[in-house]
UniProtKB/TrEMBL annotation:
Name of the protein this chain belongs to: WIPI1 protein
One Pfam family cited in the UniProt record for this chain: PROPPIN
Lineage: Eukaryota, Metazoa, Chordata, Craniata, Vertebrata
Keyword Repeat among record annotations: yes
GO biological process, one term: response to stress
Taxonomic source organism: Lophotis ruficrista
Family: Belongs to the WD repeat PROPPIN family.
Length: 410
């Protein structure tokens, strides 16, 4: 949650989210039009791009050097891509490809997955727990959990009655949140065991399309946004008796009475009583647009970020103690001219080429992808073929240095 990547009809843009008042554009590329997937590896220079012009091809770039690291093509349209420090996952409608991010070697192909028309999948950002979650059924809300490190199936979690709509891991890969197409209930499970830890009710009046589920980095909050105007933030409180005794109030007494009563009620009824409502909410001034949310700390304060498909970023303050209605403090346009020119005079580093084409024009010593072994145009995966073992990069993916990766949290 430290940077923002957007795809546009003309290319893609990368922004830094270090400030509330100013939105810094880190990079802009207009080499590939109609970009609908752009995934950056944390704050590094590695970015993965997929365009509507070639929806079956994944291009991996080192944008600071302006070079293309490799490209692979697959048997059908790429629906989503997920990456962490160890793995790069490509999700098609009925198959999933797992690559080793250090050399782009194909490690595993999961074939014949249930039809997944939206490319729904989640990958833990903690590479020590490289768990992958995707729909295990097209008709029910079963989650297939796969261990991306050992390349083995971990378990199946019967999360919902209806088909899945959203999945998200927390930062350590120890929790997984899910929502179904109904969008009324959000559940959180332990990983890798799959035990249900929390259940939150988003609403009962209407079904909604949940487009974004995200944990805060400390796993204390879970945010859900949908095609409605309301964004919900839930608090994951520890269900222990270590908290100080509450003062004797009528509501406290009734709460304890209900909690005790759940021990004697059928599971379906007690589950309903244990559902918590939102700790904090946001009411957007738009409805019906797809949006993506993030919970981040910017300038030492907790913020809720909402990016909408019309090209705007909204930043809200979140009160971590009392919750309630979040206050809008800044709105940015993502489709303006950007800050690239203004920031150049403050940048003491030598200028770097901004695109692959610019690098070629400068007669870079880096050989083109068409001549590098393992970097063929079709990647060995056209016509439904599995990429052969020899079809991978000959050398490691070299970023500037290890500082481009975020610190490893143990």
């Amino acid at each position: 949650c430290s940077s923002l990547a957007i795809g546009t009809t003309t290319g893609y843009r990368l922004f830094s989210l270090s400030s509330v008042e100013q939105l810094d554009q880190v990079h802009e590329s207009n080499e590939i039009p109609d970009v609908y997937i752009v995934e950056r590896l944390f704050s590094s220079s590695l970015v993965v791009v997929v365009s509507h012009a070639k929806p079956q091809q994944m291009n991996v770039y080192h944008f600071k050097k302006g070079t293309e690291i490799c490209n692979y093509s697959y048997s059908s349209n790429i629906l989503s891509i997920r990456l962490n420090r160890q793995r790069l996952v490509v999700c098609l409608e009925e198959s999933i490809y797992i690559h080793n991010i250090k050399d782009m070697k194909l490690l595993k192909t999961i074939l014949d997955t249930p039809p997944n028309t939206t490319g729904l999948c989640a990958l833990s950002i903690n590479h020590a727990n490289s768990y992958l979650a995707y729909p295990g059924s097209a008709t029910s809300g079963e989650i297939a959990l796969y261990d991306g490190n050992t390349l083995k199936t971990a378990c199946a979690i019967p999360a919902h009655d209806g088909p899945l709509a959203a999945l998200a891991f927390n930062s350590t890969g120890s929790k997984l949140a899910s929502a179904s197409e109904k969008g009324t209930v959000i559940r959180v499970f332990s990983i890798p065991g799959g035990q249900k830890l929390y259940e939150f009710r988003r609403g009962m009046k209407r079904y909604v399309n949940i487009s974004s589920l995200v944990f805060s980095m400390d796993s204390q909050f879970l945010c859900a946004s949908s095609n409605t105007e309301t964004v919900h933030i839930f608090k994951l409180e520890h269900l222990t008796d270590s908290r100080p005794e509450e003062p004797p109030t009528w509501s406290g007494y009734m709460g304890k009475m209900f909690q005790a009563a759940t021990n004697y009620l059928p599971a379906q009824v007690s589950g309903m009583m244990n559902q918590d409502r939102a700790f904090a909410t946001v009411r957007l001034n738009i409805s019906g647009q797809r949006n993506i949310c993030a919970l981040s700390t910017i300038q030492k304060l907790p913020r809720l970020l909402v990016t909408t498909s019309d090209g705007h970023l909204y930043i809200y303050n979140l009160d971590p103690q009392d919750g309630g209605e979040c206050v809008l403090i800044k709105k940015h346009s993502l489709l303006g001219s950007g800050k690239m020119e203004e920031n150049k005079e403050n940048d003491l580093r030598p200028p770097l080429p901004q695109s692959y084409a610019a690098t070629v024009a400068r007669q870079s010593t880096v050989p083109s992808t068409s001549t590098m072994p393992g970097y063929s145009e079709d990647g060995g995966a056209l016509r439904g073929e599995v990429i052969p073992e020899h079809e991978f990069a000959t050398g490691p993916v070299c970023l500037d240095d290890e500082n481009e990766f975020p610190p490893v949290s143990i």
